[in-house]
Amino acid sequence: MTDEMKQLKAADPMRRVDLDAVDPAAFAALREEITMTGTQLDAAAAEREAFGAPLPGARRKRLGRRGAIAVTLAGVLAGGGVAYAAVQAYLGGGTEGLTCMTTWNDRALEGLDTDASGPWLTGDAVADCTTMLAEAGLPPIADPVVFEHDGHMFVTPTDQAPDWIEPIDSGSGPAVDARVIELRMSLGDQVDGGNSSCRTLDEGVAWAQSELDRLGLEEDWAVETVGTASPERPCSGMSAEEAGTLVVAPSEDPELLYSVPELEPVVDMLRSDIAEQCLTAEQARDVADEALAPLEHHWPTTTVVDESAECARVDFEVGGSVQVAVYGPTTVG
């Protein structure tokens, strides 16, 4: 972690500035970026450098769930007298999010003047854009084309797309592996996932490997441990920003790092009424919608039918806003 990030983390301006109008989920997302950068990405880079391994390439303009809200909050925090620099780059693969354009303009490549953007919901770019556009009160994209630019995925009308794009055939399957989407959701999950409890470094490694095994990713992904636990960082933090590598590093207690009082009732309800019950996917979706109803904003809930599951499971993650995904069978018992 850089000195500047340490100072910002220590100051914790989000808890002291009078910005009650801002969605608490946004502050949680920004706080997550500050803490996760120190506990995981910097640790992974230092460890790789020490052993002479190459660092993963940094991608420019990574304005996904976390980056976009950081840029939004930059102005808010500055207005409250707190300086915060939103950097449009961090390590990662190409699954951070999706930009949907009913009418194309080149400013969208820089995250500006977009119709809708947000996290992956299912991995199907066209379907996810249709859902997000509907939430924004806009129609589906006519004759859509999917393409990637600078680590970010875009959907726009075919006849308006830039002439330099290399279209991704949406008919050949999802643009992003749904298993990877679930993995990243699970790592950030506060109900019973990666951010739900304080696991030691060894426990974190074992849990991370079990997630890869559960999702069938063990052949293409590997767990990498970096750093050494300390009294200040007795727990484990996990990140899957680089495709194929699940990093486990020492971290502070996730309950201290990511707990937001306004969101605790939501997490508690998802845990008691979904994770600790045996529901169908539809029943779990109903519970999730009820839990999310009091929030001013949240991403559309994803429902994934998984007939191999005995009961529904749920992931709750904060990243720009609140995102919930439920997975489960159509019948139980």
Structure description:
It is a single chain. The chain is an alpha/beta fold. The relative contact order is 0.13. The chain contains nine helices and twelve strands. The termini are far apart. The protein has a four-stranded mixed beta sheet with strand order 4-3-6-5, covered by helices on one side. Strands 7-9-8 form a three-stranded mixed beta sheet, sandwiched between helices. Strands 10-12-11 form a three-stranded mixed beta sheet, sandwiched between helices. The chain has a domain at 98-172. α2 (24-50) crosses α3. Residues 1-28 and 34-95 have low confidence and may be disordered.
User: Per DSSP, what share of the residues sits in E-state strands of 2 or more residues?
Assistant: 15-25%
* Classification by helices and strands: alpha/beta
- How do the strands of the widest beta sheet line up side by side? 4-3-6-5
Distance between the termini: 49 Å
**Elements, N to C (H/E):** HHEHEEEHEEHHEEEHHHEEE
Structural shape: globular
